Structure formats: C-alpha cells, structure tokens
Amino acid sequence: MSTSSQPPILTADSLTKSFGGFRAVNDISLTLGAREILGVIGPNGAGKSTLFNLLAGAIPLDAGRIGLDGVDLSHARPEARIRAGLGRTFQIPRPFARMTVLENVMASAQGQRGERLLPALIAPRRVAEQERANAVRAREILDFVALSHLEDQPASVLSGGQRKLLELARVLMAEPRVILLDEPAAGVNPALLDMIIDRIIAINQLGIAVLLIEHNMEMIARLCPRVIVMAAGKALAEGAPSEVTKRADVIDVYLEGMPA
Ligand SMILES: Nc1ncnc2c1ncn2[C@@H]1O[C@H](COP(=O)(O)OP(=O)(O)OP(=O)(O)O)[C@@H](O)[C@H]1O
C-alpha cells in the first residue's frame, strides 16, 4: 500500500480492471495526501491511464474501492466525482474547438442554472447573475494560467502547451480538491513547460492535491517528492524519484520496452 505522510484526501484500495482476459490494473492501492503532488510513472502500457480512468469513473471497476475525503466514490458517475471535487485532465486535451477560450472555461462551471430550462424561465435574472459571476471567475482563472490575452480566440488556435494550460483552467473552474493530471508535459515546448510546472506548484499551494502521470522525468523530479512506479498493472516501487529510478527492477521494466 502506498501511503502519504499527510492526512489522505484520495484513497484507492485494491483497484482491479481487466479488458477481456488482460489485467490492465491489477490490485493497485494508493493514498494521496491532502496537499501532496504524487507522481505515477512507468513504461508504456503499464496501466497508468487505466488507473486514471478508474479514479475518474470513465470506466467501471472490476473490484476495489475509491474514496475522496472519506466519501465512497467507487461506483459514482463521472459528473458526481467532479462535483465531489475530483478533477482530471487528459493526455490529449479536448477543448471545444469552436468556442472561445473564455467560453471553454465557463463551460466547466458546476451547477449552471442556465443549462436547465426551467430555472432559466422562472428566474432569468438569477441565471444572468450567475453567468456574470462565472465570467468573472473564469477570467481570474485565465489570468492565473496566463491565457487572458487569448480569451476571445477560438480554442482551435491554441498551441499544444496553451491547450494544456486551458485544460488546467477548465479543471480549476470546477473547484477541485484533487486533480488527476495526465501527462501535462506531452507535446509542450520547453518554454511553456516551465510555465506549466510553475502553475502546478501554484495550484498545489492553493491546497489542491495532485496525482500526476508523466514520462518527463525532469517534471517529476521538480514536482514530486514521492512517486509510484507502475509496471504490468501493478505498483512495482514507491519512493523519492531519485531513489526509485536507481532500482534495478525499475530500470529493467523500462529497458524491456526498448528495442534491442
Ligand atoms: N479499452 C481498452 N480495451 C482493451 N485494452 C485496453 C483498453 N485500455 C487500455 N488497454 C490496455 O491496457 C494496458 C494499459 O494501458 P494504459 O493506457 O493504461 O497504459 P499507460 O501506462 O497509460 O501507457 P502510456 O504511458 O503509453 O499512456 C495496455 O496494454 C492497453 O493496450
């Protein structure tokens, strides 16, 4: 069992998931401390994204339990997990390409009255007020991720790194207590990489815990005091990045996937 020294916010107990006869996630347990940035590393196909999909509720568990601050979310729908404070980003960001950057962020606001027809008919003024409040908050978040200058642009014009920042903004709009970050460094140029690392630190300093899947070991070393190494669906090792990456069994699983 992988355990943080801090009080836990997210706990996963013995999560298991098979596709056909293949166990992609095989009895994984972890705890994420309330103010922690915990890394999840491992070679391609180790089961990292499947683990995130289980935590976020994108796919159902075969077995195991997921708790957020003591609340059992094991079988909750993805939207219920977001409302409970569990946010996620994707390896390949999926913004609404034709909507503006600001609209993309506003679309992640929780409990939008305007989305439901009845409140909009009964109390249009309150719906408009909430829209205005959402716009103010979305602009603050865009400022936080340094995308304010692009708020009126369609999301389709953003670079790979800017899309990652927009994903962060969208997830922040839902007021998470935990963020699952799936490869925030992938497809990002070096200039924006520093910016993204800096923003993840700032997000964590706001009191948000982060579970981070990443192949970029510089990012892992800069952000994560502790990492879990996954291999073949299992947790192979856990500890400080500088220590686990020296272990012979960890080096072996990375070398296995390499051409001879
Ligand atoms: N929906 C699915 N159906 C069948 N097999 C799947 C499915 N999703 C994942 N797998 C398999 O499960 C294994 C783990 O995949 P997963 O994407 O979780 O690995 P990963 O560690 O995230 O890899 P990467 O670092 O390349 O993103 C792989 O062998 C993959 O082919």
UniProtKB/TrEMBL annotation:
GO MF entries? ATP binding; ATP hydrolysis activity
Q: Which intervals hold domain ABC transporter?
A: 10-257
The UniProt keyword set, sorted, is: ATP-binding, Nucleotide-binding, Transport
Q: What CDD domains does the record tag this protein with? A: ABC_Mj1267_LivG_branched
Pfam family example for this protein?
ABC_tran
- Name a single GO cellular component: plasma membrane
Question: What InterPro entries does the entry give?
Answer: AAA+_ATPase (IPR003593), ABC_AA/LPS_Transport (IPR051120), ABC_transporter-like_ATP-bd (IPR003439), ABC_transporter-like_CS (IPR017871), P-loop_NTPase (IPR027417)
Family to which this protein belongs: Belongs to the ABC transporter superfamily.
What this protein is called in its record is ABC transporter ATP-binding protein
- Which species? Hoeflea olei
Q: Source organism lineage?
A: Bacteria, Pseudomonadati, Pseudomonadota, Alphaproteobacteria, Hyphomicrobiales
